[in-house]
Amino acid sequence: MSDLDDDRNSAIAILARGLQGALEHAAAGGIDHLPRPAFAAPRASMPVAPAATPRAPSAPVRPPPVAAPPATPPATPRVASAPLPVVPPPIGGAAAEAIAAILASEATNADKLEKLRTEVIGECTRCKLHRGRSRLVFGVGNPNAALVFVGEGPGADEDRQGIPFVGKAGQLLTKMIEAMGFRRDDVYICNVVKCRPPSNRDPEPDEVLACEPFLQAQLAILHPLVIVALGRHAAQTLLRSKTPITRLRGGWQEYRGIPLMPTYHPSYLLREETDPSKTRKREAWSDLQEVMKVFGKDRAN
Ligand code: SF4
Q1: Does the Cβ of 212 fall within 6 Å of ligand 1?
Q2: How far does residue 81's CA lie from ligand 1's centre (Å)?
Q3: Out of 3.40.470.10, 3.30.565.10, 3.40.50.300, 3.40.50.720, which CATH number does the structure's domain 83-300 have?
Q4: What is the pTM assigned to this prediction?
Q5: Distance between CA atoms of 201 and 223, rounded to whole angstroms?
Q6: How far apart are CA 215 and CA 193, in angstroms?
Q7: 210: Cβ below 6 Å to ligand 1?
Q8: How close is the Cα of 46 to the center of ligand 1, in Å?
Q9: Which of 37, 93, 171, 274 has the largest CB neighbor count within 10 A?
Q10: How far apart are CA 38 and CA 291, in angstroms?
């Protein structure tokens, strides 16, 4: 068997495990069938996992709850809404207990994220980055997103506006998301650290240690089908790896059972704009095309 076959089989195994978990949770929640994704309409809501995938036969099936139809349908139908197993994050005291309670609650993802932001993080001073921030940058996007992008930390524009990826790199990320067949509002975007490192330096280990529980909680609430790690710092933090991004990118990894695709940070791609070969941009697009395959977007575009 060739290396290519090994890589492909490894990627399929990771995706299958994530998908099986989502399907088992859906079945346990009384969902006994999945809507067929609208692959032919690139601007439609994000599709769920491929409809042909069989539901786990051993999962118990309960009758679906009887409920009045919502006035407006949810923006993003999806399979995976289950929180990850409640793992106490590496922070102590009331914050850890509050996060565990949020993860275990029956609230909507939007409410859980709001509670995390307001009741747990608040005007956080847990690391030295709080001293230089104008606004804390929590995250933005669809609270039921099946696709989540994780960057490194806020820059100057993000610090001013309190929204991740709104500067030049953010504009490029938005173009990348749209080129994939999604709208920016379909996905969720956040960073490893929530406050701007001075002069856009890399976050330091103590800052990541202090802030990462909030990212872990966000991802546990969102429990997307796929995570895209943007850049070395996000990829290495989520994967607990020291491997350079040039070697991590392009291959499926796994974060707590969720398929994760590492690729270059948009700001790195902007720095490469003077490179006539556009090698890094081509590589990043190749990485994103792998993600598009999971959602059937490669066939829609
Ligand atoms: S970076 Fe994170 S841990 Fe540090 S002050 Fe900001 S929110 Fe708190």
Answers
A1: no
A2: 27
A3: 3.40.470.10
A4: 0.73
A5: 29
A6: 8
A7: yes
A8: 31
A9: 37
A10: 17
| Tokens found for residue 242 | 């020291």
Strand intervals (E) in the chain: 139-141, 147-151, 188-191, 226-230, 253-255, 258-263
To which residue do tokens 């089908």 refer? 225
pLDDT tens, position by position, 73-90 = 333 334 344 444 444 445
Contact 146/78 with Cβ under 8 angstroms?
yes
HEC-encoded secondary structure of 174-212: HHHHHHCCCCHHHCEEEECCCCCCHHHCCCCHHHHHHHH
Ligand 1 contact via 129 beta carbon (within 6 Å): yes
Take residue 236 and report the two structure tokens written for it: 């290495």
175 token code pair: 């173009």
Residue pair 245/232 in contact by the 8 Å Cβ criterion: yes
Taking only the tens place, the pLDDT of each residue in 147-189 is 999 999 999 999 999 999 999 999 999 999 999 999 999 999 9
**Cα 207 to Cα 220: distance, rounded to the nearest angstrom:** 20
- Ligand 1 within 6 A of 127 CB? yes
